[in-house]
Amino acid sequence: MNIQIINGPNLNLLGVREKSIYGDTSFEAYLEQLRTRFANITINYYQSNVEGEIINKLHEVGFSADGIVINAGAYTHTSVAIGDAIAGINTPVIEVHISNVYKREEFRHSSLLARNCKGVIAGFGMDSYRLAIENLING
Ligand code: DQA
C-alpha cells in the first residue's frame, strides 16, 4: 500500500512556527514515527508553499497512490483550484488539520476542499495524520 502525504504552505515550519498552536515537533521527526508505526506500507511525503506545485503533485499521484492525506494549510480556505484537482483524481483524499480550525478565526471554518474529500480530520495535533492513515488502511 502506498500513501502520499501532501503538506501545503508554512507547514515546512512545523516545530518552529506558532508552537502553542502547532506543537514543537518538526514534520520530519513526526514522519519517522509514522513510518515506524506503519512499517508495512509506503508513506511518501511532499511539501510545497506553492499552490500550482500542490496541484501538480495531486495530478502526479492521484491515479496511482492508494490514498492521499492533505493538509493544504491556508489554501484549504481559499483554493478553488486545489479543490478542483481533488475532484479530478481517482485516489481517495483525506483533508487533515493539526489545529481545531473550528475553534479559531471564522475564515478558517470553511474548506473549499472538503466536499471533494473522503473526510476531514481536524484538531488532534499531529495525530490527525495518523488517524487519516488508519482510515485509508482500514478502507
Ligand atoms: C492548518 C489550519 C489552517 O487554517 C492554517 O492556515 C494552517 C494549518 C492546520 O493544520 O491546523 O496553515 O491547516
Automatic annotation (TrEMBL):
Active site: 22, 97
InterPro entries: DHquinase_II (IPR001874), DHquinase_II_CS (IPR018509), DHquinase_II_sf (IPR036441)
EC number(s) from the headed UniProt entry: 4.2.1.10
Keywords: Amino-acid biosynthesis, Aromatic amino acid biosynthesis, Lyase
Function according to Swiss-Prot or TrEMBL: Catalyzes a trans-dehydration via an enolate intermediate.
Summary of subunit composition and partner proteins: Homododecamer.
Descriptive protein name: 3-dehydroquinate dehydratase
Organism: Mucilaginibacter gynuensis
Organism ancestry: Bacteria, Pseudomonadati, Bacteroidota, Sphingobacteriia, Sphingobacteriales
